Amino acid sequence: MSKQGRRSTVQATLAASGLVVAGVGFAVTGPAAQAAGEQCQGQDATIVATADAQTLTGTDGADVIHTGGFTGVKVKGGGGADIICAIAGTRADLDGGEGDDVLVDVATGAGTGRGTKIFAGPGKDQFTGVASTVLTFEKATAGVTVDLAAGTVTDGGDTETVTGINRVRGSAFADTFTGTAAADVYVSSIGPSYATDGDTIRTGGGNDTVTAYGGTVDAGSGSDRVLAYAAVVEGGSGRDTIDQRYGGTANGGSGADVLTAASSLKEGGPVTALPSVLNGGAGNDVLSPVFASGAGKAFVRGTVDGGEGNDILSLVGRRQGIVDLQSGESGRVRVAGGRSNLASIEYVRGSGVRDIIRGDDGPNRISGNGGDDAINGRDGNDILDGGPGRDVVKGGLGNDVCRNAERRVSC
């Protein structure tokens, strides 16, 4: 089929004598069932795709539209109460338009590509999908409330139903998401807005994946992966991985979590320091403040608190870190001029360059990793490992173990 045929646009109008399908290079007339050859929700289709990458446009009335199993088909239902079907995994886009529409992503095993994207629109719609289906509210004009556990959506005053869908993309406004016990995927808005959306996400159980632009995330009981832009994240009881960007707070909860403050430098405008807070909570956590810098200045200002358990401070990047676990009432880490206050950190893992790391009076485990490191365990029974490079390791008081050090003192 030619490129022109693959990109054709199908527009259908119903006449009193039957169905008329007008496209590029073909025309079909006759009764709906004869012309379509497909059914959607038990009804004969009135508009059916005939090639990949077509755009099917409905009428102002009630249409029954089917993508025919072709790939990359886009459907615009128009007015009326439409019924629209796609085959899962064929990268279809379904937009019912105005009216009380039924949009269905059919699982047949035929499609293997990206999941169908269903656009929510005006009206009391019904959305049915499979694991790969994405329900998106990016065209909404106000915030939405999505409760996947209850199978309901409140969108512009309309209450809609959701069945079999676990992937949701929110609007550009303040949304509320509640998840299921399965593995859900949430994207809270259509782009970074750095705490202006005010979304609320509750994932429920399951190992969920969340991208949150501002607002709050309650990650629930599963082992979740959260990418949070200037958001507040509550990790819950699972083994969570939380990547915090552009400030915000990450609370790991009771599991063994991995928390990262990946950047604190605000995009655009004047250079601004945005504070990041990492709280490990219970469990043996790994906490990594990553320091942004520019023009000789660093812009990280944060707090790292390991909480209960044996927690690791992990330095990331190629800049020297200076760590003191016993600096005043709490410890401190400095990299390139930026700093974070430390609390309840037992272990330290250095960067790939020269670091200066000092322990506290308790039992510490310190690893310099790469670079010519200087490590001082202070009091307590410490395990100190210089790693690659020409390292100086000082045990201090206590029964210490020193490894991979070219110079050892009090070990």
From TrEMBL:
SUPFAM superfamilies: beta-Roll. Gene3D superfamilies: 2.160.20.160, Serralysin-like metalloprotease, C-terminal. PROSITE patterns: HEMOLYSIN_CALCIUM, TAT. InterPro entries: Hemolysin-typ_Ca-bd_CS, Hemolysn_Ca-bd, Serralysin-like_metalloprot_C, TAT_signal. Transmembrane segments: none annotated. Residues 1-22 form the signal peptide. GO terms for molecular function: calcium ion binding. Keywords: Signal. The keyword Signal applies. Pfam families: HemolysinCabind (PF00353). This is Hemolysin-type calcium-binding repeat-containing protein.
